[in-house]
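Issue 218. Parser rejects a valid record. Input:
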Amino acid sequence: MSVVQSPAETNQTTKTLTLAKALNAGLRAALSADDKVLLYGEDIGSLGGVFRVTEKLQAQFGPDRVLDSPLAEAGLIGTAIGMAQRGYRPVVELQFDGFVFPGFDQITQQLAKMRFRSHGRVQLPVVVRFPYGGGIGSIENHSESVEAYFAHTPGLTVVTPSNPNDGYWMIQQAIASPDPVIFLEPKRRYHEKGVVQLDAPARGLHEASVVRAGSDVTLICWGPMVRTCLDAAAAAEKEGRSVEVVDVRSLQPLDFETIARSVEHTSRAIIVHEAQRNYGPGAELAARLQEQLFYVMESPVLRVTGYDTPYPPSKLEADWLPNLDRVLAAVDQSMGY
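Output the parser choked on:
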């Protein structure tokens, strides 16, 4: 995915930002628009978070709206639930993907179920945001892809931006949602730049996006793998193959219509994600495609994923993670049928 060139400084409708800075700008916009929006998390105040996504927000909005929390994820999520019940819109930051599990009970048993448990009388507009995925040379608990746990939990919305424009708008849309949102930020893409459209979002929070048109095969991906798939599509083009790339963006709910239209057009599908293969979101997508497009597809649905092991040491992660060569090999396999 090539970096879009910076627009002229006089153009006030666009701005070139990294993903981290776009998320920061989106959080700032949400804080400015609604004084019920609060940020709450570990070291997010004067430090600005581990990846500096909340940098300078406490200085602008004060410690009553950008709050540092104890290093206790269960207590952090529980406090956010209480805030939401009192009419606030808390945005919780967890430092790393693997740190979500101490708060897993609160998320899956309280946050996800309150609307159903109360017959719709209680809404919990809480956003739980944290970096996820590998590619930065960190060990387990710092490089996990945990989307399957939450996409499998009724009552939760699960979304992930892959670029700065989506980061800017999707965080604002997530905060505006009346229901809890798990907001997954691909950490290895934090410093990649792109143009942010400041006037209006391109699409709704739960809409998938065709980010590259093609006619031979569809690559279905999200978060950190979108860049990888775009690079693979560009490489495949040099070999005379036309590869379409679909950014899922929302894992729950899933915009299957957009995905299905693409696969109907190309008649071939490859699903690419960082998480382990077994029982992952790719399996769900493959099952739906088989159920609904069995007579359309000219080859089996293929998957390019992480391996079914714990996350490896940093020396091995380049071999563990899906990469351009593995995606291109899958394209060759699909076209060989």
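Fixed in the parser; the record now loads. The radius of gyration is 20 Å.
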